[in-house]
Amino acid sequence: MAAYDTLYVVVTGAGTARRVPALLPALTSLATQTLVLMTENSRAILSPRELALVPGNHRLVESYFDAVILPRPPEGVVLVAPCGFNSLNKLAHGIADSLPLSVVAEAVGRRTPVIVAISVNAPLWRHPQAQQSAATLRGWGCAVVDPVQDGAGLTMAPDAVLLDAVRPYLRSGGLARSGADGAG
């Protein structure tokens, strides 16, 4: 399995986007370079400034003209967390109408690791299109992390689950893990 230095964190407009500032330092510790991209809908929940102020080695990418992704985004691991209903269905239909979704679509086409952490409520998770979209992404080789029960509702999986999902694909995270368990 290939190991990567770059981690993309794509934040969509699910309410659990509020968890990203707390998750980001742990994610940045796993990668040499962490690039954060926000969908337009995520900005109604979380401000780019909030993410920019999070300590750690990460960069907020807001434009197709950002030098770090020119002439083409570097290969890396893509974590879509949270992935709301709208973005889930766009990804499964190949709709790349924004920079964050374009980065995900390109990673799917390159067959580099894509982890999609779904964050929807129970009625949206029962919606036939959500189930079909999750199955489509799995069929394309994406790792899909289903929402989990939290009290009376569903939420995005715990941060530890997301970290475990990306760690094996990252050079520093993978090496740390391999050293810990004796595998190589």
What is this structure's SSE topology?
Blueprint: E1 6-11, H1 20-28, E2 33-38, H2 48-52, E3 58-60, E4 77-83, H3 85-92, H4 99-110, E5 114-118, H5 122-126, H6 128-139, E6 143-145, E7 148-150, E8 153-155, H7 159-166, H8 171-181
Parallel strand pairs: 1-2, 1-4, 2-3, 4-5, 5-6
Antiparallel strand pairs: 7-8
Helix pairs in contact: 3-6
Description:
- The protein has 184 residues and is of the alpha/beta class.
- The protein has one domain: Rossmann fold.
- Helices cover 38% and strands 20% of the residues.
- A six-stranded parallel β-sheet has the order 3-2-1-4-5-6, sandwiched between helices. Strands 7-8 form a two-stranded antiparallel sheet.
- Strand 1 (6-11), helix 1 (20-28) and strand 2 (33-38) form a beta-alpha-beta unit.
- Helix 3 (85-92) packs across helix 6.
- It starts with 5 loop residues before the first strand and ends with a helix.
Question: Order of strands side by side in the largest beta sheet?
Answer: 3-2-1-4-5-6
> What separation lies between the terminal Cα atoms?
11 Å
Q: Report on the biggest sheet.
A: 6 strands, parallel
- Could you say which overall geometry the principal axes of the C-alpha atoms support? globular
Class by helix and strand content? alpha/beta
CATH T-level topology: Rossmann fold
Mean pLDDT: 92
Q: Over all CA atoms, what is the radius of gyration? A: 15 Å
Number of strands: 8
Highest-level CATH class: Alpha Beta
Strand content: 15-25%
The low-pLDDT segments are 174-184
Write the H/E string, N to C.
EHEHEEHHEHHEEEHH
